[in-house]
Amino acid sequence: MSKSGASAAATRESGEVIDREVVEAMLATLGQKLDALLTLKLTVELGPRIAGKSMAEANVEGSLIVDEIREVVNANLAIFQRDLDTI
């Protein structure tokens, strides 16, 4: 076994490497959740939230939506990190 191969094997055995399937599943789930969140926020909520508002007010609503999206994404990433820590 090459030196780098031995090093990779030692890293896997020490638990510092996450199985590819686990990462792929988590990324797929995160992608699905993000798609659903963006669809909700941008195609369902945005219109009514900015209807009748000035551009400045619409920009404020847009910033609030970005904050809401960021909060949900960060919460999901924290869940994934917690789940990774238990693997």
Task: Set down the secondary structure blueprint.
Blueprint: H1 3-13, H2 20-50, H3 55-85
Helix pairs in contact: 2-3
Give a quick set of tags describing it.
mainly alpha; 87 residues; 84% helix
Would you kindly provide a brief summary of this structure?
With 87 residues, the chain is mostly helical.
Give a verbal description of the structure.
The protein has one domain (18-85). The protein is 84% helix and 0% strand. The chain contains 3 helices and no strands. It has helices spanning 3-13, 20-50, 55-85. Helix 2 (20-50) runs antiparallel to helix 3. The longest helix is centred in the middle third of the chain and has 31 residues, at 20-50. It is elongated and about 65 Å long. The two termini are 27 Å apart. The relative contact order is 0.10.
Cα-atom radius of gyration: 20 Å
Beta strands, count: 0
User: DSSP strand (E) fraction?
Assistant: under 5%
- Total of DSSP H or I helical runs spanning 4+ residues: 3
